[in-house]
Amino acid sequence: QYVATCNQWLAKDEGDRKISRDLTLHKQQTTTQKSNYYKVTVYTGNKSGAGTNSDVSLTLYGNLGEAGPMKLANQEDNFEPGKKDEFTIECQNVGELNQIFIAHNNKGLSAAWFLDSIVIEDLYAMHTYQFPCHRWLAKNEDDGKIARFLVPQSSTTETPQIRKHNQYKVTVFTGNKSGAGTDADVFITLFGNQGQTGQIKLDNEKDNFETGQKDEFIVECPAVGEINKILIEHNNKGLSSGWFLDRILIEDTQGHRTYEFPCNRWLAKDEDDKQIARYLVPRPKVKNNQYKVTVFTGNKSGAGTDADVFITLFGNQGQTGQIKLDNEKDN
């Protein structure tokens, strides 16, 4: 028997206002708590400007699964410089903690945050984990990241296996239909044979997801192994929220494999089936091939071009996608 714990609202007027959730299945054991309480103590550093007004969220990862992201908030002035903030959270039991993901949304007048450390007490197992950080989560400090994976410093039990981190290059192709672009926030979740990433916002501070546009994002997260599906969604906000998604390419930079996820549908409340979230599965893997392409430019006056030239090959097993024709000569 398998159990998928939710313990959250599916409502537009409750919690985080989401009406869809991804749940992780775990084999039910009579000796395992279905839910658990954790005491989370967050220590903000003493540096100048160390405090943040942003919303802070936490995701727990353990040998029984993961829980989150969960917003950490119990008063208006959390995360002030040199301050200790304590939270008690109820969520599914993730077992022995092996890492956490701490992040903020970079909003507010003072968004930058210097996090000293986090201490998490498993109130069921009576075990305490310490997660040192000693770094900025800030767009204008350190490495510019506003989210970090942290691993426990020490444990009184055997150290659990830690999921390796990975870097994925996500390329999103918005369709060419009229009004295909979106102003909404777009999120992706990767699912693989070694787990899932949780919801990740696709944002590189550019004007993304415009009609006919290609947008690229570098995503750092726990490795999920061989990707078997993704969830792509948006929050339906903005003046033009409807989105026609052509396809998504995901390159596993460590596994040296690229996955293509065709969509060719609307994610819109007023188009198609009115869904703003879709699960996509990868196109079956096709062996790479080499093609010799010879291009003959005409002899007419002014027939040559200085523009970039692209080609796409179509066959009974799929298509190549757009390929730039460039051999560093004067073509």
TrEMBL record:
PROSITE patterns for the chain: PLAT (PS50095)
Occurrences of domain PLAT (ranges): 36-151, 166-281, 289-331
SMART domains assigned: LH2
Annotated transmembrane regions: none
Gene3D superfamilies attached to this UniProt entry: Catalase core domain (2.40.180.10)
The organism's place on the tree of life at top rank: Eukaryota
Pfam families: PLAT (PF01477)
Name recorded for this polypeptide: PLAT domain-containing protein
